[in-house]
Amino acid sequence: QVQLVESGGGRVQVGESLILTCEVSGRSFSRSSTAWFRQASGKEREFVAGLRWSQGRLDYSPFVKGRATIARDEAKNVVSLQMNSLKTEDTAVYYCAVGNPLSYSTDPASFDAWGQGTQVTVSL
Question: Given a cut of 90, is residue 56 above it in pLDDT?
Fold first, then answer.
């Protein structure tokens, strides 16, 4: 059974940084694409960052480009998302996801397993 467990969310102030981590079990991590999405209250889930393989194609949404870094630790089956210079509009529940690299895209439908989400709240 595939399990994704996120951690690292919380309440921060504008301009601060945080690191979200997601531990993946029950699935071949090296053969999975990985990504982070977020969903703000009342809005649709949106792509934040993704890696098709452990290396190679790397995508960031325009609203985090230059402020975020996605990385994978293949030895620990962990994917992380570091976000800097946080803004109030970054407030959302953040989800990690894994999928088949052959069908990788920034569309949530291309990912077949999801974590439970971790809340990030950015305040003034």
Answer: no
Q: Going by C-beta distance under 8 Å and a sequence separation of 6 or more, which residues neighbour residue 98? A: 2, 4, 24, 27, 29, 32, 33, 34, 35, 111, 112, 113
Nearest to 111 by CA among 124, 99, 123, 95: 99
Residue 53 confidence (pLDDT): 84
User: Cβ(92)–Cβ(117) under 8 Å?
Assistant: no
pLDDT tens digits, 67-120: 999 999 999 999 999 999 999 999 999 999 999 999 999 999 999 999 999 999
CA distances from 22 to 5, 43, 56, 62, 103 (A): 5, 23, 20, 22, 21
Residue with tokens 């210079």: 85
Q: How far is CA 41 from the centre of its chain?
A: 17
What is the pairing mode between strands 10-13 and 118-123? parallel
